Amino acid sequence: MSPQNGPVLRLAGVHKHYQLGAHRIDALRGVDLDVQAGELLALTGPSGSGKSTLLNLCGLIDTPDAGDIELNGQPVNALDETARTLLRRDALGFVFQNFNLIPVMTVAENVDYPLFLADVPPAERRARVAAQLAAVGLAEHAHHRPDALSGGQRQRVAIARALIKRPSLVIADEPTASLDSHTAEQVLALMRERGRAEGAAFVIATHDNRLTARCDRVVNLLDGRIQCAPC
């Protein structure tokens, strides 16, 4: 759940580098970023700008070399891998360009899976899955498998799955890249509506101008630094 006060996510003075043999790559150089509850924030920049690294840090998949990261006001840098995994499971959702749905599961089973892993009681799981599928307009497709759906419908399933645990923050990696313009607009509208309804922030890495034009803020990275102040 989101904190009552302060940002959902805060990065302060974050640095990250990688070593390729004798060559050092400074992927992030002193990044400061706050993300508020219910906000859609677009993360843009050319290849090699640091977007993927920043997305991985926001998603608690990686750790910084220096600087501080807080999620829901909790410092996360010093957490061990088990604690990070539990926090990631409980407080984060993920949406991907290729949907990452499990093909042998139905739509309802895909959305239910995070609740199953979290040992939520079956009756509660069924109720929450039904409500979430209704919210994203897919109630009638609950028993279909992903290969029976369009790309836009699959991304709706992915959004429903990301939000089923009521996370504070959803990390989305190029969620509209494989969609046509009309479907991309629908998916963005859905992310905005569901994010605000559930108080979840979205950090969205994208090259899609259709998407950035509709986000609340755009943060542009270049050579590991934020170039444009959010507006």
Automatic annotation (TrEMBL):
Domain of life according to the entry: Bacteria
An MF annotation (GO) of this entry: transmembrane transporter activity
InterPro entries cross-referenced by the UniProt entry: AAA+_ATPase, ABC_transporter-like_ATP-bd, ABC_transporter-like_CS, ABC_transpr_LolD-like, MacB-like_ATP-bd, P-loop_NTPase
Gene3D superfamilies assigned to the protein according to its UniProt record, in alphabetical order: P-loop containing nucleotide triphosphate hydrolases
Biological process (GO), any one: protein localization to outer membrane
A GO term from the CC aspect: membrane protein complex
CDD domains membership: ABC_MJ0796_LolCDE_FtsE
Keyword Transmembrane helix: yes
SUPFAM superfamilies with a match to the protein in the record: P-loop containing nucleoside triphosphate hydrolases
UniProt KW keywords: Antibiotic resistance, ATP-binding, Cell membrane, Membrane, Nucleotide-binding, Transmembrane, Transmembrane helix, Transport
Boundaries of every ABC transporter domain copy: 9-231
Alphabetical list of Pfam families matching this protein: ABC_tran (PF00005)
UniProt similarity note: Belongs to the ABC transporter superfamily. Macrolide exporter (TC 3.A.1.122) family.
PANTHER family given in the database record: IMPORT ATP-BINDING PROTEIN, LIPOPROTEIN-RELEASING SYSTEM ATP-BINDING PROTEIN LOLD
Protein name as it appears in the record: Putative ABC transport system ATP-binding protein
Native organism: Rivihabitans pingtungensis
